[in-house]
C-alpha cells in the first residue's frame, strides 16, 4: 500500500491509501486503480492533474509477506475498491511459473459497471482455468446476470472458496 497526497476542491490536504496493481518485479513504475467519485476529495485532485505532473506518494506500508508454496490455495473475498490487494497477490501467484497455488475469489459490487479490473480478472480465469476462479456478486444486477445476487453469504463462501484446511488461507 502507498499513501498518496493531494488537495481537495477547497485546497485542503487529502491523504489516501492505494494498493498498486503492479508487482515488485515491475521496476521503475507502479500502477494504481483509482475509482473516481463525483464528490470525492482525492478524486478532485486526480481530475485536476495533467500528464507530466507528480503525485506525492509514501510507502510501501503494511506489506504482506507472500512466499511461493505458502498455501495450497487462497480463498479471497473483496468488495469494490478492496479488489486491488487481492488482484496484486493473484497476479503475483499466477504469473510465477514456479507457483502452483490456486486462487478462489468472490468479488462483490453494486452494479456490473462497478466491477474494477473485470477484464483482467476474466483474463486470469481464461488463462489459468485450473488455478483461478472468480465469482462476481452484485447487489443491483441487470436482468440477465449469471453471478451471485445480493450480499456475500455463508453459502456463497462454502460454494466458491476452498474448504478450510491447514494449507488453505
TrEMBL record:
Limits of the Oxidoreductase FAD/NAD(P)-binding domain: 76-162
Any GO MF annotation of the entry: cytochrome-b5 reductase activity, acting on NAD(P)H
Keyword Nucleus: no
Residues in Flavoprotein pyridine nucleotide cytochrome reductase-like FAD-binding domain copies: 9-66
Sites where the protein binds FAD: 16-18, 33, 35, 42-43, 84
Main localisation: mitochondrion
Pfam families for this protein: FAD_binding_6 (PF00970), NAD_binding_1 (PF00175)
Database matches in Gene3D superfamilies: Nucleotide-binding domain of ferredoxin-NADP reductase (FNR) module, Translation factors
Compartments, as annotated in UniProt: Mitochondrion outer membrane
Entry annotated with the keyword Flavoprotein: yes
Named cofactor requirement(s): FAD
Protein's GO biological process: electron transport chain
Recorded GO CC terms: mitochondrial outer membrane
Keywords in alphabetical order: FAD, Flavoprotein, Membrane, Mitochondrion, Mitochondrion outer membrane, NAD, Oxidoreductase, Transmembrane, Transmembrane helix
Name of the molecule in the record: Cytochrome-b5 reductase
